[in-house]
Amino acid sequence: MTNPITSGAQYIESLRGRNLRVFFMGERVGEPVEHPVIRPSINAVARTYDLANEDPELATAHSSLIGRRVNRFLHVTESALDVVMQNRMQRRLGQLTGTCFQRCVGMDAFNALYAVTFDLDARHGTTYHPRLKSFLGSCQEQNLVVGGAMTDPKGDRSRGPSAQDDPGLFTRVVERRADGVVIRGAKAHQTGCVNSHWIVVMPTLRLQEADRDYAIVAAIPVSDPGLTFIYGRQSCDTRALEGSEVDQGNAKYAGQEALIVIDDVFVPWERVFMDGEVEFAAPLVDAFTTYHRRSYVCKTGVGDVLIGAAATVAEMNGVSKASHVRDKLVEMAHLNETIYGAGIAASHESRRTRAGNFINDDVLANVCKHNVTRFPFEMARLAQDLAGGLVATLPSAKDFASEVTGPVLRRLLRGRSPGDAEARARMLRLIENMTMGRNAVGYLTESLHGAGSPQAQRIQIERAMKLEEKKNLAKTLAGVNE
Ligand SMILES: Cc1cc2nc3c(=O)[nH]c(=O)nc-3n(C[C@H](O)[C@H](O)[C@H](O)COP(=O)(O)OP(=O)(O)OC[C@H]3O[C@@H](n4cnc5c(N)ncnc54)[C@H](O)[C@@H]3O)c2cc1C
Ligand code: SF4
Predict the structure, then answer these.
(1) Over 80: is that where the pLDDT of 385 sits?
(2) Is the pTM of this model over 0.85?
(3) Which of 139, 193, 236, 298 is catalytic?
C-alpha cells in the first residue's frame, strides 16, 4: 500500500505519470497535470484536500470502517449530522473555488451503494457489501479520489439498453470469467474522471430482465489501459492557452467532464458490487439521486461568489445604494438560500438505512435540485443586469497591456474611482466566467442536467406527493363525503 495523500500538493503529484489515454481537441494529452486547460480542474479537487487540513471538523469525519478520521468525501455517513456536514462542506468549497470541485459524485455513490449492496446481499446471499466495505476502506486508507460513473450515452431515449440498435450505448458485461467480468461501453459527462484514482460504474436507469448484462456496478482504476477519456469542451476554455490570467475570470479553478470509453476492461470479482441483479438497478439510481440532488447545495457556495461579484461591480459603478440594485442583491440571496434551505433540510431529515448509514429525505432533495435547475439561471441574469453590458463587450487583457490602447481603456473603462478600470475588468470577467464562460458549465448547465434533468425531479415529486392524502384533508374540511 502506498502512503496516504495528505495535502493538495501530494494529490496533484499522485496524478502524474499515469499514462492515461486522454484526448482534448483531437490530440492525445501528454501529462494532464501540466495541461493549462485541465490544470484548473485539478486545482479544484486539490482544494478539497487542503480544506481537510485547514478545517478538519468540516471536511473530515471519523470512519468506523478503518477507525480513524478520513476525508469527508470518502466517509460513509454514520449519523444525520454527517449528512448535514456534507452540505456545509460543499457550500464552503463552492465559495472557495467558484466551480465544481468534483468529488461529491463518488461520495454519494459510495453511500448509495453501501445501503443497496446490503439489501442486495440480504435478498440474494451475495457478498457485495463486504467487498464494497473492503474497497472503500482501502480508498479511505490512501485518501483517494473516486468518480461516480452513472450516465450512459443512451442513444434512443425511448428504448432501454437491450433494445438499442447498438448494444454499446450502455455499459455492459461482455464476458464472465472464473476470476471476474469484462466490461464494455461508455459513460458520458463524467465529472472529474481524469482527476480521479478510481471510477465506479453503475447502471443509469431501472432495468428489465432482458437487461441483465447491463446491471453492473464495478470499480475500475482510472489508469486501466482499456479506458479512453475524450475531454469535454467548456465555453471559453482555450482562454487558458492565451497566457492571460485576467481574461479567464477564474484562472485557478474549473470543473471537468469527459466521455469515458470502456473497451473490454477486466474487473476482478472483489471489485464487482452488482452483477445481473436487475431489480436493484432502480433502488440504486433512487438512492444515488436522493443523496446527489441535495449535494447541489454546492451551487449556493458558487452563488455566494456571484452575489459578491455583482455587489462589488455595483459598488464600482457607483450604484450600490440604489434601491433596485439592493433589491436585486436581496433577490439573489433569497434564491440562493432557498436552494440551500431545501438541501440542508433534506439532510437534517435523514434516516438510518438497513445497512446502518444515513440517507437524507427524498422529496426535499428533489425540491432542492429542482430549484437548482432554475434559480442559478435567474441569479446569472441578475448578476449580468447589475454588471452592465461591459460583461460581454470588454476588450482583452492584451488591449489593457498595449501601449496604444491600454491608457485609453484605463481612462474610459473606470468606474466610480479613478484607476479602478483593471479591478473592474477582473470582476466583470469573473461574472462572465460564471454565467457564460468555463464555470457556467458547472453553475448553469450542470445545475440543469446533473443528477437528472428537471423532469426527473418532477417525476419523483409526483410519486411522493401523497395526493390522495391531501385530497382527503380537503374533503374532510369541506365536508365532502363520498
Ligand atoms: C456538467 C455535467 C456534469 C455531469 N456529471 C456527471 C457525473 O459525474 N456522473 C454521471 O454519471 N453523470 C453526470 N452527468 C450526467 C447527467 O446526470 C445527465 O446529463 C442527465 O441525467 C441527463 O441526461 P442526458 O444528458 O443524456 O440528457 P437526456 O436524458 O437526453 O435529456 C434531454 C431531455 O430529454 C428528456 N428525456 C430524456 N429521456 C426521456 C424519455 N425517455 N422520455 C421523455 N423525455 C426524456 C429529458 O427530460 C430532458 O428534457 C453530468 C451532466 C452534466 C451536464
Ligand atoms: S456539481 Fe456540485 S455536487 Fe456535483 S460534483 Fe460538482 S461540486 Fe459536487
Answers:
(1) yes
(2) yes
(3) 298
